[in-house]
TrEMBL record:
GO BP: piRNA processing; RNA methylation; siRNA processing
Similarity annotation: Belongs to the methyltransferase superfamily. HEN1 family.
Catalytic EC class: transferase
Molecular function terms from GO: metal ion binding; RNA binding; small RNA 2'-O-methyltransferase activity
Official protein name in the record: Small RNA 2'-O-methyltransferase
Reactions it catalyzes: small RNA 3'-end nucleotide + S-adenosyl-L-methionine = small RNA 3'-end 2'-O-methylnucleotide + S-adenosyl-L-homocysteine + H(+)
Keywords: Magnesium, Metal-binding, Methyltransferase, RNA-binding, RNA-mediated gene silencing, S-adenosyl-L-methionine, Transferase
Cofactor(s) needed: Mg(2+)
Amino acid sequence: MDKNFQEKFTQITKFKPPLYKQRHQFVKDLVEKYKPKKVADLGCADCRLLWMLKFCSCIEVLAGLDICANVMKEKMHTLSPLPVDYLQPSERSLTITLHHGSVAHKDPCMLGFDLVTCIELIEHLEEPDLKKFPEVVFGFMAPSIVVISTPNSEFNPLLPGVMLYRHPDHKFEWNQAQFQSWALETARCYDYSVEFTGVGHPPTGMEKAGFCTQIGVFIRKYPQTGESVQSEKPTEAVYKTVFKAVYPSLKDEKYLQNAVISEVIFTAQIIKHRLMSKHEEYGNDPERKSKFQPSMDCFSDYLGNLVVEKNMEPFLSGNEVYIPLATIFSFPKVNRLCGTFEKLCKLIAGKVTLSSDGSAVMFSIECENEDD
Ligand code: SAH
């Protein structure tokens, strides 16, 4: 074999990163560009793309569909929340669901998605299913964006060992003209526009072969109104749900409350420590101690630009130290979590020890010393 050709050959057969990763990265880039909230991956196989997408912070609903339940089940546990997700719940909500079923059938659980991805799926469909596919995806699901990728058969001669198709389960592989005419006709029928691109560049001098994987990005031309979508859609469920994970989120009051309580106690402790260390500084000198007036000065370095009002000053009384809730609320993290002072009061009610009028967090100094 000619040395030049051999070099090109090795270069293209070893795509870096691997081609499946390039396809998934293509989808991820699209998600980052269009920021869809609800994404469905059809023919999701071992859920790799879904796993990658769960880290995209714009996504709140992720769904996978595959005709083979076993392949989905293999790695579906990777879609479950981790301990860290419970320790630090995210601000966004995220639900991931896997369905067992065929893209040739309509199911209401596939309605309302912004982006639908079909990565290396269509070439696995038998002719009758391929015929039904556009009506299900573009007519019924009708998301704003559909991404379809499929092998480009013109690239096959550049791949070693490919005789007819790249995979034994492929029912066909289209050249660029075949894919583009199918895609343009589908787009025309369902009022979408389509743009063609791909991943897996051909080697220099062989540009005519096109990308190894050809991709069509379909964008719906007209927005759908909620009522028109739902009213005429069937409601009978035909898919079987095989997995569902609801991630802990600060949108859920239960997790928000935990996060606020921890942050309030943490903030109050910091303020208290500053106050106490200042107090101890004065403590060895009885004369100075009698003059000790805890004020915001003792931790002003920490509080930065905090607006200081008289009723925001922490104070000591007997064996208790009081940290006004107004002070705690002015800390950015507490403020952001709660939104309003009323919400802060509501969330910590009964969970944090407060002064009798409920305006300050109360700590016992003795307890603190025992701990030390
Ligand atoms: N999208 C995956 C894998 C594609 S392989 C990736 O990016 O790597 C094609 C997948 O489509 C297989 O898992 C196969 O089980 C599934 N599939 C085949 N026919 C299907 C159908 N009619 N409905 C749904 N999924 C189907």
